[in-house]
Write a structure and sequence with these properties.
By secondary structure, the chain is α+β, with helices and mostly antiparallel strands. The protein has a single domain, classed as Arc Repressor Mutant, subunit A (Orthogonal Bundle). The protein has five helices and three strands, in the order ααβααββα.
């Protein structure tokens, strides 16, 4: 596959481990917004180094936005989905529907907007 292919280039950043789960956790936050510490707590098993790295990559790709509040101590960093990030969640919803139709038999997830993932 050609490295300049749109699919190749897109998969390069969204297929990295934790990337989609970070986006989903942000989607579950109020207005697509969560603090770093909330993301860390909601993603058991992710290391601080990996979380920081993925957040920087997702920000560079324009899928999330970082807001820093320096008016308090410690400094507060919030992460929020951008319009492009919210649009990617719609793709994840389509992927979920495909998986439920063709690959995975999961009664709890057959309802749209299930309580766990809100998809």
């Amino acid at each position: 596959m050609d490295e300049n292919c749109t699919v190749y280039r897109t998969m390069e950043y969204i297929s990295k481990r934790w990337s989609m789960l970070i986006l989903l956790e942000l989607f579950k936050g109020q207005d697509g917004n969560k603090r770093y510490s909330e993301l860390k707590a909601d993603l058991p098993g992710i290391t601080p180094k990996v979380l920081s790295g993925r957040l920087k990559e997702l920000e560079a790709e324009g899928l999330i936005r970082k807001k820093v509040d320096m008016s308090s101590f410690p400094v507060r960093s919030d992460y929020q989905l951008t319009p492009a990030g919210f649009a990617l969640i719609d793709v994840v919803k389509d992927l979920k529907n495909w998986a439920l139709t063709w690959k995975i038999d999961n009664e709890a997830c057959k309802r749209m907007d299930c309580a766990r993932c809100r998809l």
